[in-house]
Write a structure and sequence with these properties.
Order of helices and strands: EHEEHEEEEEEEEHHH
Structural class: alpha+beta
Number of strands: 11
Bound molecules: zinc ion
Strand content: 25-35%
Number of helices: 5
């Protein structure tokens, strides 16, 4: 889980502004990648955003204890990006963002429970934006929302959308009986195809090829 520092114990020292992390049991420290906002202004990725995950083993341990407390810290370039304390109650969690000591912000988040197939319960956050159940809540400019409310994309989704023009261009080439390689000349007109049809397909194919080449150039520039 990137960008997560998880402590257990009493996080009160943090709320008093001492930030003495040695008082806590530090479980994991990692840095968020620097590309919080994509260089080209595209959709941000889930992995780049600070998030709290209800499935984390330590959260699962704490969630059923009365007033189980946990603190999460997100760093980037060794600077604290976000520091939150969470206290779990039976049906809600109280999240206090203490990144700004002067004006800590508190948010109550409802908890939902679903029955597991093999017994027991599974806990979820109810997104403060859409009320849908979600395992992860993301921090974004003072807001705490689910992935779909923030329009965050999975890395695989972004890769798929970047690959799409190339895949379509290759399918068009194969449809004309040619090689799918974009480095070879565009396939010639099949013998029984009308020129008008061929011209239309070729125009379409070349449009996707131009997009594919641009995506590749953008990717190489990154
Ligand atoms: Zn939502």
């Amino acid at each position: 889980m990137p960008g997560l520092t998880l402590f257990d114990g009493q996080p009160d020292a943090v709320t008093k502004g001492e930030r003495n992390v040695t008082k806590h049991c530090c479980l994991m420290i990692s840095e968020l990648p620097p590309s919080y906002v994509s260089a080209r202004g595209g959709r941000r990725r889930c992995n780049d955003s600070p998030a709290i995950d209800i499935r984390h083993p330590r959260v699962r341990e704490l969630i059923d204890r009365p007033e189980g407390r946990i603190s999460w810290q997100f760093n980037r370039n060794s600077l604290t990006l976000c520091y939150v304390n969470i206290v779990f109650h039976r049906d809600h969690a109280v999240l206090t963002d203490v990144t700004d000591h002067v004006q800590p912000k508190t948010l109550s988040i409802s908890l939902l429970r679903t029955l597991c197939n093999y017994g027991g319960w599974r806990s979820w956050f109810a997104c403060p934006g859409c009320s849908q159940r979600c395992a992860k809540l993301y921090f974004d400019d003072g807001r705490v929302l689910c992935r779909s409310c923030l329009g965050l994309a999975y890395r695989s989704q972004l890769q798929a959308s970047a690959e799409r023009p190339r895949l379509i261009a290759q399918r068009i080439r194969r449809g004309l009986g040619g090689s799918p390689s974009l480095f070879e000349p565009f396939p010639a007109k099949p013998p029984r195809m009308h020129w008008r049809t061929y011209d239309r397909i070729r125009e379409n194919g070349e449009r996707y090829e131009a997009r594919a080449v641009k995506r590749l150039a953008d990717w190489l520039e990154r």
